[in-house]
Amino acid sequence: MDCRHCLEEISEYVDEELTPWAEKDIQSHLLSCPECHKYFRELKEMRLEIIDSINKVPVRSDLGAMVLSAVKTDHTKKMQRLTWVTVAVLILLGSPLLFLFSRRILTLVRLIYSIGLTFLGLVQTALGYLSPLTIFATVTALTVLMCLGLYVMRGLLREPDSREVFS
User: Fold this and answer.
1) What is the CA 105 to chain-centroid distance, rounded?
2) Is the pTM of the predicted complex or chain greater than 0.70?
3) Which residues have CB under 8 Å from 33's CB, separation 6+?
4) DSSP labels for 77-137?
């Protein structure tokens, strides 16, 4: 074994990560080469100093509990967000089912839709005065109202007698 090959594998030798045959090759080279042996001793001393310095770093006794608490808090926040998103999706997807069961709901939705259209006109004039978050919330609410309005129109198109919808 030459010095170049020995120096390439000496770190693994110090960490005891080599196969027994590779270890024997390195050991025989270290016995015959004083330069590589010197480098090996320095590397081994450095490894021991690093291990000692790591062991000297104080670790809080409650570190494990702190990490677990942070993970649980993060998980709880994610679950709360997921719960609200799930509720919103169920409401949006479940609202069309209401139209199958009640004509009075169609009347209510039509009223809400017309109020939404009026509100849209007001928002369009006030867009310059609102924050981006308010605009986002308004557009989201209006989108929901418009979807509900489409369901009202669908109900009107299905029923030849529109008096039932407006009564």
Assistant:
1) 38
2) no
3) 3, 6
4) HHHHHHHHHHHHHHHHHHHHHHHHH-HHHHHHHHHHHHHHHHHHHHHHHHGGGS-HHHHHH
Structural domain of residue 41, as residue ranges? 3-56
Closest CA to 25 of 6, 42, 39, 7: 6
User: Counting Cβ atoms within 10 Å, is residue 142 exposed (0-12), middle (13-18) or buried (19+)?
Assistant: middle
Q: Show which of 94, 110, 145 is a domain's final residue.
A: 94
pLDDT tens digits, one per residue of 54-88: 888 787 788 888 888 877 777 777 777 777 777 77
Specify whether 121 is located in the same domain as 142: yes
Instruction: Indicate whether 110 and 138 sit together in one domain.
Output: yes
Do 66 and 44 belong together in one domain?
no
Asked whether residue 86 falls in the same domain as residue 129, the answer is: no
**The amino acid at 147:** C
Distance (Å, rounded) from C-alpha 145 to C-alpha 149?
Answer: 6
